[in-house]
Amino acid sequence: MIKPPNPIHWNPTAIGMAMSFGLIPHAPVAADPLPASTLYEIRNQVMAGMNAARSLMACMAEEYAHVKTGTCPAKPTPGAYVDRISVKKGRIDLLYGTDTRPEIAGKILSLTAYETPDNHMVWRCGNHSPPPGLKTLWNGATRYIPSTVENPYSSAACAAATAFPDMSAYRGEVIRDQVNQGLKLADPAKRLVERYAITPAHLKAAAELFNSQSGKTGVTENLYVSSIRIDPTTGVITISYNAENMGLVSEQNTLALSPYASTSGGYLALQESLLTERGMATWWACSSATQAYITGLGLAGAPFGTLPAQYAPTECR
Fold this sequence. Notes:
Number of helices: 11
Number of domains: 2
Low-confidence stretches: 1-31
Oligomer: single chain
Order of helices and strands: HHEEEEEHHHHHHEEHEEHEH
Strand content: 15-25%
Shape: elongated
CATH superfamily of the largest domain: Glycoprotein, Type 4 Pilin
Helix content: 25-40%
Largest sheet: 5 strands, antiparallel
CATH class of the largest domain: Alpha Beta
Number of strands: 10
C-alpha cells in the first residue's frame, strides 16, 4: 500500500489546485450567520404577512364560534411582501413574493387552526410544534402542511399568531345566549300548559292547538330554534335548536322542559298529578343531556334533553 506523503511536505499550491479540480473534497464550511440587521429585516417581512392575515384569522374564529361550517367570507388583501393569502378549510397559507429577501421569497408560511375540548381555537404557526393533545379544526379535518419559511425567520410572527385574541373563546357564551332565546320562545307554551292542563283531555287539546302553529313547528321562523312542541300526554315541552346554525353536533340540540305540580306530598309530574290530585303545573324542570340540578331538588323522572350541558343554563344541567 502506498502511503500519502507526509503532510508537512505537501505543496500548498498543489493542494489548492487539486481541490479546485475536485481531486480532494472540500471540507464542509458552515454558512456565515446572517447579520443581525438582515435577520431583523427578514422577520419584519414575515410579520407583514402575519399582519395581512389578521382579519382572516378573526373572521375564521368568529365563524367557528357561530356556525362552524368551515367557510369564511373575508377576502384579505395580501399587502406588502405577500403575493397571495389562501384558505383551505381551517388553514391559512401566506405566499411571500419576490420583493422579499431571498431567504423567504416564494416560500409559504402556514397557520393551522386547532380546537380545544372546550371549543377554543388556537393556531399552529409554520413548523413550530403543534398544540399538545389537540386535533386540527373541524374534528381533525383541517390538514396541516409543513411551511417552507424556516423557524428562525418566523419566530416573531408565530409568537404574534399564538397570542392572537381567541374570539372562539366566546363560542360557548354565544351558544348559551342562543339557547336562552329558545327558552324565552318557549314561554307561551309553558303558560298554555299552566293554564289549560286541568285534565288529560284539556292538556291534549291545548298541546295539539299549540303544535299546529307555524307549519306544525309551534314556533315562528327563527334562526336558532327549529321547533317547540308540547307532548299532549305529559305536557313536556321539547325545544329543538337549529344545530347547523348554532354549530352544534346533529342530534345534540334539544332541551326538555317538564311540568310538575305541587301537591300535599311534594311534587308530582303533571301527567301523574292529573290522574290523581288534579294538580296544576307550578314548577318546570329543565334538562339538557344532564339533569343534576333538578335531581338535587328531588324532581325525579324528567326526560333528558340532548344538548351538551356546557351550553345550557345552570338550572338545565
